[in-house]
Design brief:
The complex is a heterodimer of chains A (330) and B (327). Chain A is built from twelve helices and twelve strands. With 330 residues, chain A is of the alpha/beta class. In chain A, the strands form two sheets. Chain A has a seven-stranded mixed sheet with strand order 2-1-3-4-6-5-10, sandwiched between helices. A five-stranded mixed sheet of chain A has the order 7-9-8-11-12, sandwiched between helices. In chain A, helix 1 runs parallel beside helix 7, helix 3 packs parallel to helix 4 and helix 8 crosses helix 12. With 327 residues, chain B is α/β, with parallel strands linked by helices. Chain B has a single domain, classed as Rossmann fold, CATH 3.40.50. Chain B is 46% helix and 9% strand. In chain B, the strands form two sheets. Chain B has a five-stranded parallel sheet, with helices on both faces. A two-stranded antiparallel sheet of chain B has the order 4-5. In chain B, helix 1 packs antiparallel against helix 11 and helix 5 runs parallel beside helix 6. The longest helix of chain B has 26 residues. The termini of chain B are far apart. The relative contact order of chain B is 0.17. Classes of the chains: A alpha/beta (330), B alpha/beta (327). Chains A and B meet through helix 3 and helix 11 of A and loops of B. The structure holds thiamine diphosphate and magnesium ion (MG).
Chain lengths: 330, 327
């Protein structure tokens, strides 16, 4: 038996999908450049820009010192000047050293000075190994900040389609790629496939209840859906793909159609985007609900390096199954 | 200094202990025993041992993501360090921290860190605490060459200078940040000169010479205790392994690594010196190597047999609870 290894184009990884989208957009727009640590030789810590420096040169893919505040400052100043930089912060945890540049500066300049700030802040996010300083889920914080858009793709197709859109949009975009998805392969769209922000994707159709989620929890939800199917419960899974703008049309339709909804993610639940979704969706669709929208999310605790402890801090398959059963009980 | 036989032997043994710990832990990491991996400090022993041997056990340190060597040199038993790498309940951080977050705050180890440069600020703050309380101690902040380019490092240095804090900054300068050679990203290329620009005594020293590291640290400590403020020491060293366990990369040549290993190894240099001065016999050296191996073996055994942390404790200790808790 002979097998052929699929080429990157046929069946790329999540990281390669990013490369693909960025390459195409860099060809279209000569003002796109990338700045971050260990990009040129290593191709980024998750191979997300592997080979791009070799193709486009080191004027357009720059290795940065470990200077997150200056990286974002360089990005936002050059964006105001007319470039379209991608600032690669490696792990989103390191954005905390550049929070002023992101929240006070990049997010507010258009509003105050009527000047677009076309900048993509890319980082790897989500809970995996690595402990307290490498597993922060900060997406709610960014979505909370007026002036920022937030992408949270869960598969290769969306990575490519969303980064292409981000690179054609004159606004600051925080682009969060989940650690545990980096190597997952999948189809991608062609050069002209752009995915609009604020458009959720129905990952799986169902008829009994719905799970609204994003990022890696989309995968956990799919596993939960299998378990539920064995028990005769058919759930629909909605992947939001972006948290701001949020696809409120799809959220509302989903709540109206099922009346039984679970909102799930792995960020600490207290004050999180799932609270925003549950609150606004309940307010708008109260009469359609069979019971409260049930949320499931991360513990309000720093993540531990011990894998069992960190797993216990985020939704498990069993936890999502239980949440769905709870909405089914109404 | 090496005329003091006991001192020399203790220094050598500490370096051997670190080396064996790192080589052993590296292999265990490749076998999946260390969740999240680790940053191997092999080659950098003299920086850790040289500094720590010049400190009082009650002095404070705060360090980086690559801190096994600092931690062992500071005196944490290797079984406790190994257990933390395994994320076991018996580790110094109860398994919450693993390789990057070793700490023993009670005994002046204010923690490894996942954030580049953060340890510098924490040590500077500890120095401020020491000064506020009128204690006779110093605080040492470790940082890599990569951490020379983050603003927080220099904000902390500046504060240490203006408040004359009993603070010593040690650049554990292994010349690479992940795969990036220091000269590619460090404007002006002279790290000690940067320090000097902030107005504190700043030196670039041979970080592979444990006695030189000891001497410079001792002098810095004396200045600090005399109320003369902070010092900046850029110790040139080299890491033998990749940034993370298992990484190779094309960013440096095998010849370069071999050259550092064969000509400048801190353990070889110091053991050769002790032997040539008659402070150590070949037989004693071999015995020392064997006893270190035994100690590490026992540490691995301890880590293996230790229990995992109790998963039901994940919410414990987030805050004191005194302001009220809502679970
Ligand atoms: C603020 C921040 N930015 C980026 C990183 C990712 N990172 C971890 S270690 C490292 C390289 C650090 O190099 P150096 O300071 O020289 O220390 P070494 O690894 O050589 O000991 C980088 C970029 C981080 N941990 N924290
Ligand atoms: Mg370094």
């Amino acid at each position: 038996m002979s097998t052929t290894t699929p080429t990157a184009q046929q069946n790329p990884t999540y990281s390669e999908a990013f490369q693909s989208g960025v390459r195409e957009e860099m060809k279209r727009n000569e003002h796109i450049f990338i700045l971050g640590t260990d990009l040129v030789e290593r191709g980024g810590h998750f191979a997300q820009v592997k080979g791009i420096a070799q193709e486009f040169g080191q004027d357009r893919v720059k290795d940065s010192p470990i200077s997150e505040a200056a990286m974002v400052a360089a990005g936002l100043g050059s964006a105001m000047y007319g470039c379209h930089p991608i600032i690669d912060l490696n792990f989103i945890d390191f954005s905390l050293g550049a929070m002023d540049e992101i929240v006070n500066q990049a997010a507010k300049i258009r509003f105050m000075f009527n000047r677009p700030v076309p900048i993509v802040i890319r980082a790897t996010s989500g809970v995996a190994l690595g402990g307290a300083h490498h597993c922060n889920s900060l997406e709610s914080l960014f979505a909370h900040t007026a002036g920022l858009s937030v992408a949270v793709p869960s598969r290769a197709y969306d990575v490519k389609g969303l980064i292409k859109t981000a690179l054609r949009t004159p606004d600051p975009v925080v682009f969060l790629m989940h650690k545990k998805l980096s190597g997952v392969r999948g189809e991608i769209g062609d050069e002209n496939t752009l995915i609009p922000f604020g458009s959720a994707n129905v990952v799986k159709a169902g008829k009994d209840a719905a799970i609204i989620t994003y990022g890696y929890t989309t995968v956990t939800a799919q596993k939960a859906a299998q378990t539920l199917a064995e028990q005769g419960i058919d759930v629909e899974i909605i992947d939001l793909r972006t948290l701001y703008p949020l696809d409120t049309d799809t959220i509302n339709e989903t709540v109206q159609r099922f009346g039984r909804v679970v909102v799930a993610d792995e960020a600490p639940m207290f004050g999180s985007i799932t609270a925003e979704i549950a609150a606004t969706a309940s307010e708008a669709n109260f009469k359609y609900l069979k019971g409260p929208i049930v949320r499931i999310g991360g513990a309000r605790a720093p993540l531990s390096a011990n894998p069992q402890m960190s797993e216990a801090a985020i939704p498990s398959v069993a936890g999502i199954v239980d949440a769905v059963k709870k909405v089914m009980s109404y | 200094m090496t005329t003091d036989k006991t001192w020399g032997k203790k220094i050598l043994r500490d370096m051997l202990l670190i080396r064996n710990f790192e080589e052993t832990a590296d292999k265990l990491t490749l076998r999946g025993k260390v969740p999240g991996g680790m940053h191997n400090s092999s080659g950098q022993e003299a920086v850790a041992v040289g500094v720590m041997s010049a400190l009082d056990p009650k002095d404070v340190i705060a360090t980086t993501h690559r801190s096994h060597h600092h931690t062992i040199a500071k005196g944490m038993p290797v079984d406790i360090v190994m257990a933390e790498l395994f994320t076991k309940a018996t580790g110094c951080s109860g398994g919450r921290g693993a390789s990057m977050h070793l700490a023993d705050v009670e005994n002046g180890h204010f923690g490894g860190n996942g954030i580049v440069g953060a340890g510098v600020g924490i040590a500077m703050g500890a120095a401020m605490g020491i000064k506020q309380m009128g204690h006779k101690k110093v605080a040492v902040g470790f940082v890599g060459d990569g951490g020379m380019n983050t603003g927080r490092t220099w904000e902390a240095v500046n504060m240490a200078v203006i408040y004359k804090l009993p603070f010593i900054l040690i650049v554990d300068n292994n010349q690479y940040a992940v795969e990036t050679f220091v000269e590619r990203v460090t404007g002006g290329n002279d790290i000690a000169k940067r320090g000097a620009g902030f107005g504190l005594p700043s030196y670039t020293i041979d970080g592979q010479d444990v006695e030189e590291v000891h001497r410079y640290t001792k002098e810095a400590r004396e200045r600090a205790l005399a109320g003369e403020g902070p010092s900046f020491i850029n110790a040139l060293t080299y890491r033998y392994y990749g940034h993370n366990v298992g990484e190779k990369g094309q960013y440096r040549t095998q010849e370069e690594i071999a050259d550092w290993r064969s000509h400048r190894d801190p353990i070889d240099r110091f053991s050769a010196k002790l032997i040539s001065e008659g402070a150590l016999s070949q037989g004693e050296y071999e015995e020392m190597i064997a006893s270190v191996a035994k100690e590490i073996e026992a540490a691995v055994d301890f880590a293996e047999k230790s229990p995992l942390p109790d998963v039901s404790t994940i919410l414990d200790g987030v805050d004191s609870g005194l302001l009220g808790v809502r679970k």
